[in-house]
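Hi everyone,

Forwarding the result from last night's run.
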Amino acid sequence: MSDDWALATRLVHEGAMRSQFGETSEAMFLTQGFVYDSAEEAAARFANEAPGFVYSRYGNPTVAMFEQRMAALEGAEACRGTTSGMAAVTAALTAALKAGDHVVAAGELFGGCRYIVETYLPRFGVETTLVEGKDLAAWEAAVKPNTRVFFMETPTNPTLALVDIAGVAAIRDAKAPGAQVVVDNVFATPLWQSPLALGADVVVYSATKHIDGQGRCLAGAILGREAWIKDNLDVILRQTGPALSPFNAWVMLKSLETLPLRIRAQTETAARVADALATHPAVKRVLYPGRADHPQAELAQRQMKGGSTLLAFSVDGGRAAAFRAANALKLVKLSNNLGDAKSLLTHPATTTHKNLTPEAREAAGIDEGLLRLSVGLEDAGDLIADLTRALDAAAMKVRQAGE
């Protein structure tokens, strides 16, 4: 592939591996294993002395094409696909840690990620410290001699709070050289944020979200330096088995061709929706990185190239009012997924973050009236009208209850 090609071009052509038939679309290699011309060739492949595949848990041509295309998108030396985003997070952290090591992580994490850091890793002798992600002084104070990983998602789920990636990387350099800065970049998407360029070592994705973008398949991705992936990650993936299926990899490959078109359109609509919601009397606050009133607007301008396809807003009247608004929607669908072509709304306190203690939810800014909206590809005017009608209905109930 040409290094002179723009990103949109690379997302159509990067990593193409055509068979002898010269197909236009990338081939789907639905195979578990591979055959060899001789016993000597088999031995050479297993010894990594000859190119080729040996088993689809280790690698597959369709999966390899997806990995190469993702690496081009992220600007990474290498990528490995996994069965899901949580498989990517777990494998990346496991590859970087051993018993006796220490993780510093932002407390503002998706519930599954927080479980891995707070509950799962300590079962195997890994010490963890959760800090307020926005506070660089807290990151620095938490570092210990055995700190080996700094882990964050930014923007965070569901409040769209930001962590200063470059700031954490500088703390790593000063106080824990050799530690890995691992960034979950799902909300920003690779289009709007480049963690590796900001000093991160490893980037993880739930490709289930924007990369598929149409609610079809599960997948994950881990990106970073080729040497770290080969020396640390590959053995974890091969021996524990979270292998991405060729079919799902093929779906992701085709989705990457349209990623810039989809994300730009969704982000433009999300900005319009956020502005409209901010004027509604039933809405107490809107959280969107693309708005000047975001609590970390300066960092968003410095760290991100766009405002994201997601936003959060709090409805006056708490859970009851939020539920009434959600139930009154006609166009926006209720779902805990995100990054879809369809606009999706969820109530984090009772879905994605229900396992957090009330204290932890309060610390993360997840109040009972908070709703998370993933903006899709619908017409912006239709979405604003649907949300406005739903909020009007919720506000009327609140007024009637007060009379």
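The CA atoms of residues 269 and 380 lie 5 Å apart.

Cheers,
N.
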